[in-house]
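Feature request disguised as a bug: please show the residue count (69) next to PhnA protein in the output. Example input:
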Amino acid sequence: MDVKDSNGTLLNEGDSVTPIKDLKVKGSSLTLKRGTMVKNIRLTNSPQEIEGRAGGNMMVLKTEFLKKA
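Example output, currently without the count:
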């Protein structure tokens, strides 16, 4: 199962990614700003989603809005 970012770059466990646009976080007033570093990502069962820690919270992010740092 290949997990790719918005540019088609292959993502692996432990990579760092950044959002390509500001993302509103559901269920929170937090907004993940463009360029915020999300370090040490984990792959999920879905090729369209990754888990990462940003803003002190663990969250699931869609790969279509991310690029490899």
